[in-house]
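Consider the following assembly input.
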Amino acid sequence: MSTEALVVFDGVIKKFGQFLAVERVDFEIRKGEFLAIMGSSGCGKTTTLRMLAGLEAPTEGEIRLAGKRINDLPTWQRDTPMVWQSLALFPFLTVRENVEFSLRMRKIEKAERQRRVDEWLERMQITEFADRNVAHLSGGQRQRVALARSLVTEPEILLLDEPLSALDAHLKVRMQTVLSNLQRELGITFVYVTHSQSEAFSMADRVVIMSRGRIEQIGNPQEIYRAPRTKFVAEFLGSSNIFSGQVTTAGNGMIRIATPAGEFDAVSGAAKALGKGDKATFVVSDDRIQLSNQRPETGNALRASVVGEEFVGATAVVHLENPAGGLELKAQKSHEELEHLDLSPGAQVWLSWRPEAAHILPGE
Amino acid sequence: MRKSITLYGMTFSLPMAIWQVMFFLAPLVFLIALSFWSVKNFRMEPDFNPDNWTRVLGRAVFWQAYLRTVILSAVAAMVASVLAFPCSYGIAFKLSPTARRWAIFMMVIPFFTSYLVRVYSWQIFLSDNGIINAALARVGLGPFPMLNSDFGVMVGYLTLCFPLVVLLQLFSLIFVDRTLIEAAHNLQCGRLRTVFEVVMPSAKVGLVIAALFCFILTFGDFVSPLYLGGGDPPTLSILITDTTKSGQQWPRAAVIALTMIATLLCVAFAAVSYAYRERGR
C-alpha cells in the first residue's frame, strides 16, 4: 500500500432536485488500500460510491481517477466494477456466464475468456457450480459469484456497496476474511460502503465516517476509535461518556472544563488551543473508567446511579446515569473488579478517570 | 377444520372450473363429435364417419391455407413484437410514472372501438383511391395497391394486436430489475447492448407471451384477411366460413377448427415452455 492517490474527490456535491445528498466531500483514496465509507442510512455514503462508479454524476466538484477527471465518463467506459447489496447477478445466465460477462463485453477472445473464468471460479471455490443457475445458489456462493464477476477483469479498484448485509452473522465473518485476504493478495483498491462498524473496522485500512452528506472523520480504525473528532463520531462508535462544557482554566498542557455534572481536568494534548470560556467536549472510553464505593482521592470523579449491567463474555458493561448532568454513562470492567460493588439498579457509585483518559474532541 | 378450508378454497375455484367446463371443455367435446357426423341432403346426422378428416386433410387447398395462416400469424407476431418493443421500452424506462399512466391509458383506448369498425376505416385509407394514395399522388407517387394484399392483412392484424402487445411487453419491462441494468453498464456493457443482453432476457416471459397472444389472435381472425386481404387465397378462418356456407358442411368446418385448436395448443405450449426455461441446473 502506498500513499499515492488513485481517486480524488475534490469538493464534490450531489443534489437530487432540492435534496442535498452529498454536501461537499473532499478526500482521496490511496492506491491499494482498503477504504471503508461508513455512516447510517441516508448519510450519502452510497451516493458517493455511485458517483465513483459513474452511476450518478456529481452536481458540482470533480472526481479524478488516476489523475484524470471522470465526472462525465459514463460507467461503461470506466473500469470501476461494483458489487451491489443485492449482488445484481443476472438470473438468466449461469454462474460461468455471469463471470464471463464483462470479458465478453471487452471482446476478449474465447479461449482467453475460458481460461480467466476458470481461474476465477477456482479462486473463489465455485468451480463445481459453474453450470448452475445463480438462483439455485446459497447466499455465500452467490457472494463469491458476484466477486468473481467483478474481479475477473482484474480492475484497479473494486467498489462494494454493503455486500454482506444479507448474510447471517457467521457467514458474514467468513466473507470478511475472504474479502480481506483477496484484497491483500491482489493489491486492488477496495472501497467498501457499510453501516456496520464491525465490518468497517475489522477490514479497512482507513475509514471515512459520513453524516448528513458530510465527512465527519477520516483515519485508520485505531485512530478513529481512540480519538474521535466529533461528537457524532463518538456517538456513532457507541461511546456514551460524552461531556460538554466550558473551559474554566487552561495552561501547562492541562485544561479544566466545567460541565453540568461538575468540573473535570483533562490533558489538552493534540486538541486545538482552547482558552478560558471556550466550549469543549470530551469523551472517556468505557474501559478507562474506574468504579468505586467511595470518592477516590485524586482524578476526576462523578457520582452516578446504576441503570443496569450487561454481560459481555469476560467483561461486563455497567450502564449508569447522572440526571443532574443529563448524562448516560458506561463502564466496562472485568467481573472481579465489580465483585465488591453494589450494582443493583438505583445504587450510587463513584466513577473516576485520570485526566489523560479524557479525549477532547477537536472537531467540536 | 380441514374440511372447512377445502370448502373455502372450493368456493373461489369452482366458478373458474365451471367456466372451463361450460365454455371450453363441453364445446370442444361437441366439436370433436361433430367432426365425425355426416351430411346428407344438406342435413347433419350424428355418425361416426372419419370421411370428413380424410377429405379435409387430403386437400391441397387446406394445406395451402394452413401454411398461409401460420406464416401470416408468425410474421404478424414478429412485426408487432419488433415494432412494439421500442414503444414499450420507451414507456417503461424513459417516461415518468405519471406519463407512463397516461401512455397505458392511451393504449387501452383503441379497444373502445369495435375491431370491425377500425378495419372498415382502414379500407378508406388503403384503397387505390383512398386517403393514403391520394396524398401520395400529390407528390407524384403511386397509386400503390395496398388493399386486398398481404400488406393490408398485416395492417389489420397490427390494428388488432399492437396495443395489446405493447401492454403485455410493458408490464414485464416495468418489473425488470433496474439494478441489473446498472450492473451491466458497470461491467462495460454499452446502452444499446444492455437492451439485448439484459433487458430482453429479463423480460423474456412478457415478450414471448405478447408475441404468443398476437399469434393466437391473428391465427383465428377472419376480419382482416377478408376485408383488407380480399380473402383470396383464403386463410383457415375464411376456409371455415366457406365450408359452412357450401352445403351445410359443419362437420368439415369442425375438422378445420380442431386442427387450428391443436396448432394453437402446440404453439402455446412451446412458447410458454420457452418463456419459462431456465439456464443451467
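Chain A has nine helices and 20 strands. Ask yourself how this observation constrains the way the partners meet.
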